[in-house]
Amino acid sequence: PWMFLHKSRTTLSPWRMIKDTTNGGKTMDNKKEVERAELHRAIWQIANDLRGSVDGWDFKQYVLGTLFYRYISEKLTDYLNAEEREAGDTEFDYAALPDDEAMAEKDNIVQILGFFIPPSELFQNVLARAETNESLNETLEQVFRHIESSATGTPSQDDLTGLFDEFDVNSSKLGATVKERNAKLTKLLSGVGAMRLGHYQDNTIDAFGDAYEYLMRMYASNAGKSGGEYYTPQEVSELLTRLTVIGKTQVNKVYDPACGSGSLLLKFAKVIGRENVRNGFYGQDENITAYNLCRINMFLHDINFDDFDIAHGDTLINPHHWDDEPFEAIVSNPPYSKKWAGKDNPLLINDPRYAPAGVLAPTSKSDFAFILHSLAWLAASGTAAIVCFPGIMYRSGAEKKIRQYLVDSNYVDAVIQLPENLFFGTTIATCIMVLKKSKADTQTVFIDASKECVKVTNSNKLTPENIENILKLYTDRVDVPHTVHVVTGADIAAEDYNLSVSTYVEPEDTREIIDITQLNAELREIVAREAVLRTEIDRIVAEIEGEEGIAL
Question: pTM higher than 0.90 for the full model?
Answer without folding.
Answer: no
